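REQUEST FORM: STRUCTURE PREDICTION
Request ID: SP-0412
Submitted by: Lab K.M.
Chain count: 1
Length (residues): 381
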Amino acid sequence: MSQKDYYQILGVARDADKNDIKRAFKRLAREYHPDVAEDKTAAEIKFGEINEAYSVLSDDEKKAYYDRYGHAPGANQGDPGGGFGGGGFGGGFGGFGDLFESLFDLGGGGGRRQQSRPSRGADYRMGMRLTLEEAFQGVTKEVELTSDVTCSKCDGKQTLEADGFANCSTCHGTGQLHQQVRTPFGQLTQVVPCGGCQGRGRTLKKPCPECQGRGSVEKKRALQVKVPAGIDTGKLIRMPGEGAPGNLGGPSGDLYLAIEVEAHKTVERRGNDLFTKKSIYFTDAALGGEVTVEVLLDQSENLKIPAGTHNGTVFRFKGKGMPKLDRSSRGDLNVMVEVIVPTKLNSKQKKLLKEFADAGSQDAEPASLFDKIKDALWGGH
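STATUS: Completed
RESULT:
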């Protein structure tokens, strides 16, 4: 069976972008709509092909699948890999699941319709980047997106009229067509969705003038998103009802925001714990002292340095780390000290350090000597 060229149906190049595809669809939909065409039967078939092509080429996942395999996902083509592998009878001979289902529907009167009732719209997903400070305290951010929304004029029902739909003349309202398919088991009857009505069993007679019968319109929106404190990379924020509009007035899908927290210059996050470094003078490391550690935003902690602190020593502040998501507790703050050793010394500084070295293991006032060294090196700070 030859495949439909959706690009040719819409009259666009294979590298056409979404705007070109949408413009082509709107132009052809107005031209071939059964309500304005002279040959209504031919127009219904053509209109169905146009809708089918647009439904695939306007969807990124379906378009990618079509570009790769030459048919839309779920079309009667079988598994691209062929053979019996992996999928049982459903993958090797062009959708055997449908073939065997059709054996119980050879009469043609009771076929199932697709999308003939209101159905929920698809979910959207987009990324949101946060600074570590924003993740630390929580924030309300505005996100902008351009997407389809339910048409406000027809409320997604595609028509303003009570009798805006009519039974499809191609499938006579069943939403299905029967095809003879040759298989290794002989010739079978396969039930496929009607291309004239996209399996709905009905066609539009009087489309909504605002959305041209799509039930949705493209709109740029700004949403206020409340980001909770403690959120981390990989988490999702759900925005109910902000996804794709439903079919035939059905409820809209949801919008999911995938969080990515940016790396910080001086603070590292590991789960709910924070890690940072603080430089101290070697005199403070030897004699002890107190320094202020700046963390995030206005948070600062006083760090008491015990005498004899070594380079690389880590001090923990319990409950001073990241807020735990949806909990009242927090992780820990870990501060690693880096001892600064002077590289350029004047004669006075060298003399004092030599006195300290000469003192060796003697107990002759080492603290007072270090105080002199501290004053000479750092000016008493």
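NOTES: The radius of gyration is 35 Å.
Reviewed by: T.R.
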